[in-house]
Amino acid sequence: MKKNIVLIGMMGSGKSTIAKLLEKRLRLKRYSTDEIIEAKTKKSITELVASKGWDYFRLKEERVVAQLSKKKGVIIDTGGGVILNPANLKALKNNGIVFFVKASPASIYKRIKNEKHRPLLQVPNPLGEIRRIYKERLPLYSRADVVIHASTASFDKAIAKIRKAVNISLS
Ligand code: S3P
After folding, report:
1. Nearest CA residue ID for atom 2, ligand 1
2. Cβ(80) to ligand 1 under 6 A?
């Protein structure tokens, strides 16, 4: 397989779970932009954003995306804001099939409401914030090649759809 499998979508939509399942089932190498940034900076994303700010994090993210986009036949799990920078999506699409893991704000909130490590959700009304970000970013996520519905379909169905899309694009 020459193309990469790229997952984009909101935080808490299930990207990382799907990426890990794909890694096991397809036996492909998996990279997470957030994990790489954390390893490089030796800080959690929350700590990094608190100490250096969002612009610094986004710059790191752009560099990591540029590096990963050069790879072939790997799974790339991206941070939810990766699409805010048009250069990122362009690079990711160049060598990859981009899948939008789509989940509703309500199901995202349900999944992550008890997590403390999400810097974007350290606000008084997290569900409102998720709704706001979702609305703002939907047109950007929708530039993906394929949409995977994570809130209605099971993860198994999502994997099956990804496998099918990958096979079609290779044949
Ligand atoms: C972000 C999502 C996070 C992480 C950072 C910013 C966003 O990644 O990159 O906190 O802007 O939506 P996940 O989507 O993996 O949670």
Report:
1. 80
2. yes
Asked whether 147 and 97 are in contact (CB, 8 A), the reply is no
Give residue for tokens 């490089």.
40
Ligand 1: which of 37, 45, 121 to mutate, judged by most atoms within 8 Å of the beta carbon? 45
pTM of the prediction? 0.95
Ligand 1 pocket, residue 119 CB under 6 Å? yes
How far is 84 from 106, CA to CA, in rounded Å?
A: 22
Tens of pLDDT, residues 83-96: 999 999 999 999 99
